[in-house]
Hints:
The structure is a homodimer. Chain A is α+β, with helices and mostly antiparallel strands. Chain A has two domains: 14-164 and 224-327, Bira Bifunctional Protein, Domain 2 (BirA Bifunctional Protein, domain 2, 2-Layer Sandwich), CATH 3.30.930; 339-429, 3-Layer(aba) Sandwich (Rossmann fold), CATH 3.40.50. Chain A is 40% helix and 20% strand. In chain A, helix 5 packs across helix 11 (236-254). The longest helix of chain A has 20 residues, at 14-33. The first copy, chain A, is elongated, with a radius of gyration of 28 Å. The two termini of chain A are 50 Å apart. The mean pLDDT of chain A is 92. Chains A and B meet through helix 1, strand 1, strand 2, helix 2 and helix 4 of A and helix 1, strand 1, strand 2, helix 2 and helix 4 of B.
Amino acid sequence: xxxxxxxxxRDFYPEDMARRNFIADLWKEVSIRNGxxxxxxxxxxxxxxxxxxxxDEIASQLFAFEDRGGRMLAIRPEITPTLxxxxxxxxxxxxxxxxxxxxxxxxxxxxxxxxRLREFxxxxxxxxxxxxxxxxxxxxxxxxxxxxxxxxxxADFVVRISSRRLIAAMLEYFGVEKEKLNAVYAVxxxxxxxxxxxxxxxxxxxxxxxxxxRKILALMSVDxxxxxxxxxxxxxxxxKAIDELKKLFGWLATMGIADLCKFDxxxxxxxxxxxxxxxxxxxxxxxxxxxxxxxxxxxxxADFGGQKITATGCxxxxxxxxxxxxxxxxxxxxxxxxxxxxxVAFAEESLQNDALKLIAKLRRAGAKADFSxxxxxLGKQMKQASAxxxxxxVIIGQEYQTxxxxxxxMTDGSQQNVAEKDxxxxxxxx
Amino acid sequence: xxxxxxxxxRDFYPEDMARRNFIADLWKEVSIRNGxxxxxxxxxxxxxxxxxxxxDEIASQLFAFEDRGGRMLAIRPEITPTLxxxxxxxxxxxxxxxxxxxxxxxxxxxxxxxxRLREFxxxxxxxxxxxxxxxxxxxxxxxxxxxxxxxxxxADFVVRISSRRLIAAMLEYFGVEKEKLNAVYAVxxxxxxxxxxxxxxxxxxxxxxxxxxRKILALMSVDxxxxxxxxxxxxxxxxKAIDELKKLFGWLATMGIADLCKFDxxxxxxxxxxxxxxxxxxxxxxxxxxxxxxxxxxxxxADFGGQKITATGCxxxxxxxxxxxxxxxxxxxxxxxxxxxxxVAFAEESLQNDALKLIAKLRRAGAKADFSxxxxxLGKQMKQASAxxxxxxVIIGQEYQTxxxxxxxMTDGSQQNVAEKDxxxxxxxx
Lengths: 430, 430
């Protein structure tokens, strides 16, 4: 039997795992320092949960299966529905605001390509129960905090921000029917991703009226918040949305990240459930890939059978992110971090037992320790010590007859004899 | 829409996540200090991979599904086949011995019950390329090291050890046909798990000959390594297996864990691929639940299309383990570890902007910082600071007009005024 892995999945060999852990550990560290606490849900849920609210694209990419009781289940393609379900279940017991994060493994039946796999990890941060766009600002700050902590700068990425509320108000103001909004969002979301003529053709298929299309195209070419007022006229909803965006940019300036953020009317987001502020973070190099996306979703908890409670959040996958960090040289020398503290070498086979005793004691004391199964010449063992990046090598040789260990510093090559008791006393004090 | 979670899966609310992280973090820490490096594979693989070598029980519990290309896939019920596939793919590039660990999420379509869920996490440690049973000893040491590090003692658990090689040799010596071995293993594995008469009835169904059954029952009642010699007679394979077990117990004594280990002929293991030393770790309290199981599997890499390379390893699930650690009070006060460093309170709404600036700076500097969205009276904000277990509270009040912050120690209630610049200088020095 010679079986391969499934296309679009990844094997994480130790060096790949080191890269994955660097990203996941930093997601966690940044989440915690921003006041988020970790949660997770099951890897599979009832299929129906993803068919209604995730939007057509995700619903068409589900890995669905039937269990032996005939129930239709699916591997999670996103974690937000699970978040909504979990929060709803305990809504009265959870102190608000709820600030939760998770880094779930997700699966989508996509056609595998660079930066898009059928299985990936996605950092999610969400704030539930805060109406003020200060919460949206905090989500954006936290996502930016991660990218800066990973070594990226204002030269590397930009947060593009807009508002579903604004787009909805403007489309209604232009006379687009409410039932058509979701279909039009899906078209507008493509604007920066496809050529202008292809975009205009898609828009024509969604909106027959050329006057409405002209207005929409004019709106989509606005390049600053200040210019929006003229188009919105006296429309109350549109002006409220514009005021909210202005307030958001105020918070972002207060938090010191105004230079990373930009209003961009073309940000609409593909998912069906967004209702207010929406944003995407783009890599400035190459083809401006989206690193992260999110926004406010005020109806999702109610849609899942709960109370109507406001919420906002974002997701950042590990595929595009990993490629970008790799390109920028920010994932170098990670494997070295797995180095061990003590490599125990023994000068002859009769001393192997003593070496094993020492290793067992070292490990029980919390030190990372290893040895050579093969044994053999000391020189060979020292080479193996170098290969596993040992900080120190403890040599059990002739000196051990008088209870002395030889401790060699592998960085500078210096070595000294230490009584075994003193060696362990020193270890405990570290 | 009011959707529930699927039975047999778990929601990890923050307090559950803290428990899961305690276990997963300690698995990782103990693995690394024992010289293992982390790997992982995909959450799904080709279905065929699990149908051939995992044994009937696992093969009957697969969550299988078809992708859009008509390929039959399954969520992983164990990670060892993935390990074999990955090692085979790079066998010539990987330095040996290969010492790898992983803590994968696994799914099995079991009937949910206490300690058995349809989705769980399982720590796996494996050593590939070492023939000597020193590798088995190291696997056992590492598993025991974890349980001891988690706070358990020799009073809490025992490692029961036997040998598939021994059982195979004895069964052949008794005249049991080779083709029947796997079926008889499955029966013998049940010995300690079901009543004696039920066990004997199962054995009768597998072995018609009463003389053979009598010999097998006599073998299965042996309670020490020394008594095995008499039953094995001059059979060479059986005596080799006995010598190997004696050598293993020698290594375990050298490593200082002889008091935790016991020979037990009843340990056979359900999985089909074991070939040598096998062991299970049992909780001594209550119904002697198995916490961990493993052994040597010398044919698995070859079975998966690779070279014949010796290997040994074990798995420890989080369900039974979690219940036991909980019962012993070893998972207390974990949520507190999520406490934050600085809660920033502001005396009046006009100071909220200054509070946000401070929080952004604190977070960017790596400190865990949070604030109250609601603001309001200082006393209320201080209560919230206590609720999130803040170590310190930074108050922005009247003193801030002269650049002074009030820093309150939440443990002893003491407070002092600090100039903002000095505050951040102190932070950088920590």
